[in-house]
Write a structure and sequence with these properties.
heterodimer; A: alpha+beta; five-stranded antiparallel β-sheet; 32 strands; 26% strand; B: three-stranded antiparallel β-sheet; 11 helices; 36% helix
């Protein structure tokens, strides 16, 4: 009996046990009967096993999919590992000022007081390197190596920009040889007094190199060179020099940095303040002063892209800063973004990654920390056995780092650190990205340049998926359920025999076709008649009611055209009429009440922006895809309610409506619930319609007049471009996992509720 | 599937040609030599990459098949970012790209082959900022473009959400600007981001379209829309806005003359990347294809598709890279 009322075909299939083996005939029988029984038994067993194997295969393959997804996602959350390698001793020649290594970690260039040397990282043996002519001076200071350029401050008041390069050559055997090279640019005399250059910073800006040099306890010299290349290839160089004096309370200059586009110079001072000097003005001038802490600043540096400023002080504190523009006043302000885990001693060395927003800081006692600028997390803390650490280098590929001590000891480390940008916060929370006004949920996975900061928040995508599903179900559920109720309870059986397959055929329509139609035809159409679409919600019931009243007054000859069960023939023209009526009134409403233009009205009165590719369009298109599946399952379960129940209700004097709503509907409710949930699952996973009909805009709102970006469409759009094994690739798999979990949870919950409902209403059947 | 798509695109391209050809007569440099047929060219050639170059690749492929009937060419154009992985995996010999390769992509290629991929410039493009044909807007500065498309506004402008913010009056003034752009696989997306938005971020409500044709289609049917794509996709339904580098600067039309002179701020080269080992020649099939592209016939196709041809000097440079 319970099987008879089991409404959901799908769940019935799931639960169907292979029919129990028939008992062999009792007692002695004739030979032919026995063989027939035996062959039937064999067949039964065969079928049972086949079904069992099929079921296990299905469960197995679903589990396999889950395993594959988990396998791809798992490395995202693996914590990083560093392995110390044997330390090397390089010939000592004064304190190392800067260190650079090649991307294969085979060669290093060390800048020391007496000159520059290249060493092999295999055995610390010296490698050949171009001679550097210092004209008798020694190297007093060096800027942070950046984009392959390091600027040397010489003891005679000159600055020497130096290009560092490692070239790889391949022998016929395939063996790789790394050759370090340096190339000096013309030196620049900055201190006329020929005093040593103690502190400098240098950056190759878009118009030419900019150098800033400390030329007094609290004054600095800024040299801006403008290089213009004519069409004939000649370079014209112009140079402006400005001396900037810090205010008295700033203290002595202790650190210098220039941002990537050479728009500002940042000066760290012994008072713990950062002074920003604006270079975009005609003459550089102090624009603002920000306070880091009370302690002298020992380090200023930029992450790749030149937009995130890192500050370190004698208290060991490490913080990151962005330059945020105030929209109202159009001024820019240094804003503190993150504080990283502190060192116990003054921050002495810094090395940013050239691939991502990661960076190393170290204090002189050998404590090395790896931080990540986007997430504000400190990923690694290592202790190196030295008390005089003086320079650091993050390997270009991000797979190792090197520290060098004052005595010339080089400490190499291997690093397993593939996905440093991932944390729960960056995946699901608000993050303050470079250039943003505040923390935001944002999805922008790739850019066209290396210094792009990936924005991988899945929250807008989850919101998008839920938003699309909500609008699709809003459209589909009432339509499909009421349709199913009418078809199963009121429609003439002969009509029903054609209507039901016709609706089911709708499901065969490829979703790419639906998406195409929605994007290119429905969206512009809808834009023309939107007020009418909303009015139709009032227009339909009104028109149908009016039609009913008229129908009752209609002469019998007319009424005979649509006997009971065939009312639909009257209703279809009525609905069309209602549609035409709503659209007509819509235009009237628009011109009289909405000021002649509903788009402007929506913007100014409701505060939404109307987009042509919006959730209403997708809701209708996706609803169209979901209607057949909800309709057909709901219709089946309604039709499967035992006729004796309905007959009993009718016999007791209930009307057909009462019978349908109070007896049939509750009994079929488990099946209807399944129908809606299966429709939900279909809408969550729907890809092509969302892809084509929305603008794939990762917005964070539920406005029906905007589009959205769904998890599924996002995977389809971005997987072809994501390099295998990259963070982007794995995050897309994580999106797939989320979809899987979402549908799994919903289906499980639905099944539990369905069973409850079934138990509750079983009593009546 | 692939064949039908390319045929559809050819049809689409041919249909959109008439108008552009008439509006913008670009002269081909007379010094570019005609293509000379070579012998023994057969086999399969695959191209995976830029959507901006998709029509051009298809047209060149048709021409190439006209010369060498025994050659099969497959063309896939989902976006420039799909080109490097395809070249690295060896699934394509030609990697059309509408931007230069990123360092990371070159590194990945080098890791596999030990040398860098070779970029061949094949055409000049003036990336167009498009509005609906009924839109009265004539000119924008790049700062305004940034203020419209970007949420970080690295050029320092104020946010512009309505057409009034761009100086339009009357009915247009209060209308929100509806934005269309490409998906992140696209080189055009990357180029526009780097040069117009100064590496800033796009607004969240820029509708990402999977192809340039879809962007133009969106702007055609959406009266209040603005979008960007390669100039070759321009149709009579949209018009390209003249651009100036700075606020109040000289407005420069998107045309060949201005793109060559470097005055149009979004002028760029379109590339085909190939896998060529140093000191070794290209395989004959790829070489002949590129020679055809760099010939008089190939560059005439560039004009037909709405892009701008290379000059004979550039053609000479590129041909030298093939040997």
């Amino acid at each position: 009996m319970s099987h008879a009322i089991d409404p959901a075909n799908v769940s019935a299939l799931l639960e169907a046990k292979p029919s129990s083996p028939r008992q062999p005939p009792q007692g002695p029988g004739t030979g032919s009967l026995r063989t027939a029984a035996a062959s039937r038994l064999l067949l039964d067993q065969f079928v049972r096993r086949t079904v069992k194997v099929g079921g296990i295969l299905i469960i197995g393959s679903i589990l396999a999919i889950l395993v594959v997804i988990l396998y791809e996602v798992f490395p995202l959350f693996r914590s990083l590992k560093s392995t110390p390698m044997p330390a090397l001793s390089i010939r000592s020649g004064g304190a190392p000022l800067a260190l650079a290594v090649d991307e294969y970690q085979e060669a290093a260039i060390v800048v020391r007081e007496d000159g520059i040397a290249a060493v092999s990282l295999d055995d610390a043996s010296p490698l050949p390197l171009e001679a550097l002519d210092l004209s008798g001076a020694t190297i007093a200071s060096a800027s942070e190596p950046r984009g392959g350029t390091v600027a040397l401050g010489l003891s005679d008041g000159r600055v020497l920009p130096l290009q560092i390069e490692f070239t790889a050559s391949y022998a016929d055997s395939g063996r790789r040889t790394i050759a370090p090279h340096i190339q000096a640019a013309p030196s620049l005399t900055v201190l006329e007094s020929a005093a040593p250059v103690e502190l400098l910073t240098y950056v190759q800006g878009p118009d030419g190199p900019v150098t800033a040099v400390k030329n007094g306890p609290s004054s600095l010299l800024i040299v801006q060179a403008t290089e213009r290349r004519s069409l004939l290839g000649e370079v014209a160089r112009e140079e402006t020099r400005t001396t900037v004096q810090l205010a008295g309370d700033a203290g002595e200059i202790t650190a210098l940095a220039i941002n990537g586009l050479a728009e500002d110079v940042f000066v760290g001072a012994s008072s713990g303040k950062i002074v920003r000097i604006d270079l975009r003005k005609d003459a550089p001038q102090i624009d603002e002063t920000a306070s880091v802490s009370g302690k002298p600043i020992t380090l200023l540096g930029f992450l790749i892209g030149g937009r995130t400023l890192i500050a370190g002080d004698t208290g060991g504190q490490v913080s990151s800063w962005h330059l945020i523009r105030n929209e109202a006043t159009n001024t820019r302000h240094l804003t503190r973004i993150h504080d990283f885990e502190s060192h116990a001693a003054p921050v002495a060395a810094f090395s940013p990654s050239v691939r991502n927003k990661g960076f190393f800081t170290a204090d002189s006692f050998g404590n090395v920390h790896l931080h990540y600028g986007t997430s504000g997390k400190t990923l690694l803390k290592d202790k190196i056995d030295t008390s005089s650490l003086s320079a650091l280098a993050y390997s270009p590929k991000g797979d190792g780092f090197f520290a060098v001590s004052r005595e010339g000891k080089l400490f190499p480390f291997e690093l397993d650190n593939r996905h440093p940008e991932i944390s729960w916060q960056t995946l699901f929370g608000k993050v303050w990205y470079e250039g943003y006004q505040g923390p935001e949920y944002s999805w922008q996975s790739t850019g066209g340049t290396d210094d792009f900061e990936s924005k991988l928040s899945l929250t807008p995508l989850i919101v998008g998926t839920l938003k699309g599903t909500f609008y699709a179900l809003l459209f589909a559920v009432p339509l499909a359920l009421l349709g199913a109720l009418y078809t199963s309870q009121f429609m003439h059986p002969s009509l029903r025999a054609t209507i039901k397959p016709a609706v089911e055929i709708m499901a065969a329509l490829p979703s790419v076709v639906l998406g195409f139609i929605a994007g290119l035809w429905l969206a512009p159409m809808m834009e023309k008649v939107l007020p009418g679409v909303f009015l139709a919600f009032i227009g339909f019931p009104l028109m149908i009611l009016a039609g009913l009243l008229l129908w009752q007054k209609a002469p019998d000859s007319l009424r005979r055209l649509a006997p009971q069960g065939r009312e639909v023939f009257v209703l279809v023209p009525l609905v069309l009429l209602a549609l035409a009526f709503s659209f007509g009134v819509g235009h009237l409403v628009e011109s009289s009440l909405l000021g002649g233009d509903y788009r402007r009205w929506i913007t100014s009165v409701l505060g939404f922006e109307y987009d042509q590719r919006n959730s209403i369009v997708v809701g209708i298109a996706m609803g169209f895809a979901v209607v057949p599946i909800i309709f057909t399952i709901a219709e089946d379960s309604l039709s499967n309610v035992p006729p004796n129940l309905a007959a009993g209700a009718l016999a007791l004097g209930g009307t057909r409506w009462q019978t349908a709503v109070r007896v049939v509907l509750p009994t079929a409710s488990p099946g209807i619930f399944s129908a809606i949930m299966i429709g939900f699952g279909r809408a969550v996973g729907e890809t092509m319609i969302v892809l084509m009909a929305t603008g794939n805009t990762p917005v964070m709102n539920f406005s029906p007049f905007n589009g959205f970006r769904a998890l599924s469409a996002n995977i389809a759009v971005e997987l072809p471009e994501a390099p295998e094994g990259s963070t982007h690739y794995r995050v897309l798999f994580l999106a797939a996992l989320l979809l899987f979990v979402l549908t799994f949870l919903v289906n499980t919950a639905a099944e539990i509720i369905r069973l409850r409902l079934r138990r509750k209403y079983q009593a009546y059947a | 599937m692939r064949l039908t798509k390319s045929k559809f695109l050819v049809l689409f391209a041919v249909l959109s040609l008439g108008a552009i050809g008439a509006a913008d007569a670009v002269e081909l440099d007379a010094k570019i030599a005609a293509y000379k047929k070579s012998s023994g060219v057969t086999g399969n050639l695959n191209s995976i990459g830029s959507d901006t170059l998709n029509n051009l690749m298809t047209l060149w492929a048709e021409k190439f098949k006209g010369v060498y009937p025994n050659v099969n060419i497959g063309i896939e154009g989902k976006g420039s970012t799909t080109a490097p992985p395809a070249l690295i995996a060896g699934t394509a010999q030609l990697g059309p790209m509408s931007r230069e390769m990123k360092q990371q992509e070159i590194d990945d290629f080098e890791k596999k082959f030990g040398y860098k991929p070779v970029p061949i410039r094949v055409a000049v493009d003036a990336l167009g900022v498009f509005v609906n044909k009924d839109n009265p807007l004539k000119c924008m500065s790049l700062t305004q473009v940034d203020s419209v498309f970007s949420k970080t506004r690295a050029r320092g402008g104020q946010e512009i959400r309505n057409w009034g913010g761009l100086g339009l009056t009357g009915d247009w003034a209060g209308r929100p600007i509806s934005l269309y752009g490409r998906n992140s696989a696209s080189g055009t997306y990357g180029f526009f981001k780097e040069h117009s938005l100064k590496k800033g971020d796009y607004r969240d409500d820029v509708k990402e379209q999977p192809g340039s044709a879809a962007v133009v289609q969106g702007v055609t049917v959406d009266r209040f829309a603005m979008g960007y794509s390669g100039i070759g996709y321009m149709t009579p339904g949209v018009k390209a806005v003249a651009l100036s580098e700075k606020d109040g600067g000289e407005c420069v039309e998107a045309n060949a003359e201005m793109a060559y002179a470097g005055k149009y701020p979004l002028g760029r080269f379109l590339f085909v990347y190939v896998n060529k080992a140093p000191n070794k020649g290209l395989d004959p099939l790829t070489r002949e294809f590129l020679k055809l592209v760099l010939s008089k016939e190939g560059q005439e196709i560039v004009i037909k598709d709405g892009y701008y041809p290379l000059t004979s000097g550039m053609v000479g440079d590129e041909l030298a890279k093939l040997n």
